[in-house]
Structure formats: structure tokens, C-alpha cells
Amino acid sequence: MFLKIRMLPKSTVEQWVILQTVIEKNGFAQAAQALNRSQSSISYALHTLQERLGVSLLRMTGRKATLTESGLVMLAQAQPLIDAFLQLESRAQSLRQGIKPTLNLVVDVVFPKEFLFKALRLFQNKFPDTRVHLTEILRTESEKQLTEREADLYITPLPASVSVSGKFLLKVDFIAVAHKAHSLHKSTQLLTTAQLSRYPLISIADQQAQRLEKKKITANSDWTFTTIEAAVAAIQHGVGYGWLPLHYIQPLLERGELLPINVEQQIRPTSLYMVWGHDQQFDKTVSEFASILQKTINEKT
After folding, report:
1. How many CA atoms lie within 13 Å of 260's alpha carbon, on the beta-carbon side?
2. Residue 65 pairs with which residues in a beta bridge?
3. Is residue 2 part of a domain?
4. DSSP conformation class of 285
5. Is residue 158 part of a domain?
6. What is d(CA 127, CA 288) in angstroms, rounded to the nearest whole number?
7. How many CB atoms lie within 10 A of CB 101?
8. 52, 39 in Cβ contact below 8 A?
9. 197 and 282 share a domain?
10. How many domains does the chain have?
């Protein structure tokens, strides 16, 4: 069995950066000033680079340096390597400052996207070297997620079955609706449980919760979907009624496609909280995202 012998590169990233700077600044003297080097060191670096590669990269026209055809090709190929090394050093600086390389977020699907996306954009502008991993969950998955506490930060309701504390963020109102032509709208009186039971209740739950629901003995016809979009579409097609996030279906209500149904509890508020993962509350990166998110919400409410 033969081992593959790796050879050390003949050139360095520093030499390629010097070459790039000479071209961008239109000369050796200008590049020396930009890089805070002596002109002789610039010349030596490029002479050594071309000598080691055995390829002419530069041609001089008076005092102006331009790339040869080979130089154009090779500098273009070196550019991603230069960018990668600069990013690597930037990442090292972030780590020295205590900035996490990754941020793991778990967010309930009903959390308003306008707040989430604005906060993520502001966070990425401030911490460009931190990769964000975002997972959306349904309310029925909150208990399992909060029990495991493997993420850095959660935006979720707080189930009574889980003994964790969180910081209140906002309330999401769920409103009872049906399609404008649904027969539930014919009644001018409060709808009774018996009247509602004649039609499918459209709700949202994860697959495990759906399997558990199937085992229950009930006379009601319940249709459960794993996405808000599917639940909305079902109600839009007039097959049933349900409680949907008000902010999500506001345009449909304004256009009159969906109408509130006449039930005693027409609005069901759900509180969403920020819950930190284990030992993450005092982490600089997690705390900064939490602060940005809270500020984004406060500006809109």
C-alpha cells in the first residue's frame, strides 16, 4: 500500500494578494502604499511567485503593470482562495471575540415572518461569520423540543407539561373562520357544539400528534394538516372551519374570501416566548440575536 505524498504549494496567498493589489492599484508603488510595504518587497514577492511557477504573470507598460494572458487566468483562479483565507481569518477573529460560529434557532410556524426575517437580516449584518440554522416547528412539537433543549434559542408557546421559563414576546391571535359561502354563516345565533360537529374541524399538528389523535374515539370529523398553508387551503375550499393565525389570513379576511364564524370564543390568543437552550442565556451571540428580535417586535407593536 502506497501513501499519497502531498507537496507543499510553491506559492503563498500573500503573493497572490500582492499580485491582485498591484493590478488593482495600477502599479508597484501604489500597491506598496496600500499594503504598507516597501516597493522592493512587492517586487521581490512577485518575482519569486513567477519564478517558482515558471509562468510570466505580469507585463510592464511604462510604470503600469498589467496581467499577461496567463496572469489573467491564474489570478481569476486564485481569487476564491484569497476570499476563503480572508474569511477564515475573519472567522478566527470572531472566535477570539466570543462569537459563536453557529446559531441554532427553533421557531414556531405561527411566529410572524416579518419579525423573524427582519431580525435575521439585522443579525447577519452584524455577525456575518455566524451561520444560522433555523428549524420551524408546530405547536404540538413544542413539548418535545423544550424537553430536549438542544438548540440555542426557542420561540414557542410554553406547554404546561414542561417546567421551563421564558421571556414573553407577543400574542398570536387565532380566529375562527370558514369560507364565505359556507353554510355555517347562515346562522345568526351563536353556533352550538352540535352544529359545529357536522363539519370537519381543520387544524394543524405534526405527524406524531396526528397518529395519537387517530386513536381517540370521537364523533367529530377532524382534518389535521402539517402546514398552515394546507389548512388555509382546505378552509378556502369550503370543506370545514378552523382557527387560523389572524395575521396570516388578514388579506383573505379583507377581501371577504374567509369570514369569521359566530362562535362564543371567536378569538383564541396564543402567547409565544423566548426560551434559551442550556447555558445559552449569557452567550454573547445568542443574547445579541434575542435583543435584536425583541427590538424588532417592539418597533412594530
Report:
1. 15
2. 60
3. no
4. H
5. yes
6. 10
7. 12
8. no
9. yes
10. 2
For 252, the domain range is 100-301
CATH code of the domain covering residue 171: 3.40.190.290
Q: What is the pLDDT along the chain (301 residues), one digit of tens a residue?
A: 455 556 778 888 889 999 999 888 888 888 899 999 999 999 999 999 999 989 899 888 777 888 899 989 989 998 888 888 777 776 666 566 666 788 999 999 999 999 999 999 999 999 888 889 999 999 888 888 888 888 999 999 998 888 888 899 999 999 999 999 999 999 888 998 888 989 999 998 877 766 655 545 454 568 899 999 999 999 999 999 999 999 999 999 999 999 999 998 899 999 999 999 876 666 888 999 999 999 999 987 6
- CA atoms of 211 and 241, how far apart (whole Å): 21
DSSP 44-75: HHHHHHHHHHT---EEEETTEEEE-HHHHHHH
Residue 68 backbone class (left: φ over 0; alpha: ψ -120 to 50; beta: rest) = beta
